[in-house]
Amino acid sequence: MDQAGNVLCDKCQRIQIDDRVLSDYIRRLPDGSKYSDKTGKSEEILVPIASWTDYPPELPKLQESHVKTGCIFCKYLREAILLSKVEFQGSPIHIDLSHNWFNDAIFLGKGDITRDCNYSGIVGHVTDGEAKYGIYFSPASDDFQISQLLGIYSTPKPMALCEENVSWATNLLENLDHTSAAQDPDHGVLPTRLLDIGETGTLNPRLVSTSKETVPISYCALSYCWGPLPQLTTTKSTFQQYSLQGIPFQELTKVFKDAIEVCHTFGIRYLWIDSLCIIQDDPSDWERETTMMHQVYRNSYFTICALSSDSTHVSFLQRNQHRLELNFISSLDPAISGKFTLEFQGFSREDALPTLYRVELFFNEWSTRGWTFQEDEMSKRALYFTKSQLFFRTGDQYFTEDGWSSTSFRPTLRTSPTLENWYGKMLGFRKKKFANAQDVFPSLSGIVREYIRYHGDTYVAGHWKSDFLRGLLWHSVTYGLEEGRETLLRNLSFPRQYIAPSWSYLSRTEPGEHGINFHQIHQRREGHFRSMVESADAWTTPAGQDPYGRILGGTARIRGKVITCPSDLSKIHDDIFRTSDIFQIRVDGAYAATCQLDWPVNGDWESSQDLSLLFLASTCHRWQDGRPTTHYLGKQGNKDESGGSESSSNDRSGRSDSSQVGESTQGEHGGSEQQPFAIEESTGSLELLSIKEPVASEIENKENEGISRCCESGCAGSSPQLTGDKTDSDLSSSETSHELCPVCGHCMKCCTSEVNRHAWGLIIHPALEPGKYFRVGVFTSRSDGPGSNCGTRLFDQADHQEIDII
Fold first, then answer.
1. Which residue ranges does the record assign to the Heterokaryon incompatibility domain (predicted)?
2. What is the mean pLDDT of the chain?
3. Which residues lie across from 553 on neighbouring strands?
């Protein structure tokens, strides 16, 4: 039993906070009050509490403990797990909890925080057979002495729109710097229609046109989950009624009524809701309005984000907080005593401790929906309604009602429209869900327009001209998928709904089903990326008027070196790669390349039948992360059932490693309905994020594809040329270093014309249409592999061919 009468069983006694871990960090203010300062303390401390074993779904052992002892934490823990609605597959489950101190992994970043959170709360794991979930309970206290001593935040209010919260949010809104907004070229652009909700009361909202407005109008935009159909929408048949008589207030869903209440509370008369301000059964209106949505959210006074509602029928203003109040007496200073609360934040989706503070901002149904991605990215200001408290964001700065603030380490694409940020955002976007999978590109259309406005780049099916070859080097997350090679090829040939060409990372049937990753080549871990193709062109055929919306088809035409896959693919068992299988390709029994396929493989090998390697680019030979990037290259192939090596020079396909893919059918693309871009020949070095324009000498000189522009201009004399059978190891250390060339500024490796480099490219498979191919994987051939036929040398004998990938 704790000090003030709250009953805890013997096992749960350690749920009480022992603040002696702060003994080296206690400081005094001038008024004599104590606070903890963890400056310089970076080590995270976990203090074990207890472990439990119980049986889902009812968790009878926790129930029994509560009944027998009256333990309030056994009851609370059981309720928290039941409220999570996780469908456990095994029995029993194991629960391990610990106090977490000095955790620096506070949600949005390190350092830029209004106060340190020294006591981070209770974290742990719930293990269900082989599955493991993170579980987290956040601390809070309205007692200033306790809050200051432990470095925790105040307890969120029981009502979202209470007087204190409204005053807090209003103060933030009124004290923002609006200078940048006034400089926005789209500043003041209004949506085509708005809902006039009146200034107070329950007036029937009425659709109004903004075309004749001559004075500035402030409005809010709503970002929410539609949930199960049918929904309240504006259609051709209801448009006139909603414009003249208005929408009967009683017909509005709870989320729409809540949004109106928020607007009234902050003195905003107009509201934009997509389902009501867009005529949903008018394709031309829908397409036109969705292309403007980035402006709608960017120009709203603030965006109302209903994170705690998983459908329009669930209120986001009602708080059903699940908290446990406990007593606290400081072991360091018994005069400091009072109460603090723990609040269950849910299960994390990662197989790791849920050390992310403010998890309620991420782990909700709203964050999984596809359309909310653009709505959040494009909003200058947003008010997030979670189950426990309010978050406010302006730009990339976050604030919460309990007194915390931080700058995001993942800035929005609106504030940071860089390629690096684009790729990072696409990793998360690819996992989001759509009621209609064909909405993938329309939901990105506004972000694309914003990006083009900053960079003037050319876009096609998720890719950018300035980084097209590198952008092609993504790979599928295949762990957990059941479809095999035949299913993938069938889906690519006869998709249920066409979304994108196979070379686009947005193509793998439907978002939410297949994750993707980008190779380390996107993470600046590879040196001096260089195009190795003679030309590359790509285009799509739009399904409507929006060039960045839904598409009917797409082609990437690349002229580069191609070889048939020289051996069957042998699986490498390595715990470093956790998202997809890694395979090795061999020539004469020695390493030639590693690859990742776009389908999962049961067993230790995959046939190379109909697979070819398309060589796209090369990078420098270098070490990464303190170890060679080729740490797995020396691994032997898995053994087959007969006990022999699974991969050898006489592979299962029976083909020689010098066979070539036949010339593809030639054809011209064109027409006003297509959206092309082309990358002209460039065998010179690439800037980090863009392909340099070719020079005449590059186009004329095809004798050595590995020579960089600087070598052709004459500075290669500063680095010896490799001739005969010389390899990288024959060069002196200065010649193989990445020191800069004094003539051209490139590294010495790039200025050595015939140095073997790492090779990167696509695995392709013939499509049903003659001369066309599907992209079905990626490969890397490391120049420092143990085989002699690896790196760029793997393609020495190959001819250039024009390949159409669809």
1. 219-375
2. 80
3. 541
Q: Kindly give the parts of the chain with pLDDT less than 70.
A: 1-5, 38-42, 103-117, 177-186, 349-359, 409, 509-514, 519-525, 574-578, 621-754
pLDDT at 521: 63
Which among 565, 599, 580, 588 has a CA at the least distance from the CA of 637? 588
Question: Which pLDDT value is given to residue 502?
Answer: 96
How many secondary structure helices (H) and strands (E) does the chain include? 17, 35
Whole-angstrom distance, CA of residue 442 vs CA of residue 448: 10
Smallest Cα–Cα separation from 354: which of 644, 124, 161, 528? 124
Residue 66: the pLDDT is 96
* C-alpha pair distances (Å), 249 with each of 257, 258, 259, 574, 755: 8, 12, 13, 60, 73
What distance in Å separates the CA atoms of residue 509 and residue 209, rounded to the nearest whole number? 39
Distance CA 344, CA 148 (A): 22
Q: Which spans in 411-499 are helix H? A: 419-429, 445-455, 468-471, 485-493
Considering only the C-alpha atoms of the chain, give the largest distance between any 2 of them, rounded to a whole number of Å.
Answer: 87
H or E segment and range at residue 196: strand 193-196
As given in the structure block, the two tokens for residue 343 are: 């609040």
CA–CA separation, 591 and 781 (whole Å): 9
Give one DSSP letter per residue of 530-571, joined into a string.
Answer: EE--SEEEEEEEESSS-TTS-EEEEEEEEEEEEEE--SPEEE
Bridge partners (DSSP) of residue 805 are 556, 773
What's the pLDDT tens digit per position in 214-226? 778 999 999 999 9
Give the DSSP H or E segment for 802: strand 800-805
Q: SS3 string of 579-603?
A: CCCEEEEEECCEEEEEEEECCCCCC
Give the per-residue pLDDT at 117: 63
pLDDT tens per residue, range 268-319? 999 999 999 999 999 999 999 999 999 999 999 999 999 999 999 999 999 8
Write down the pLDDT at residue 624: 43
Structure tokens at 256: 């729409």
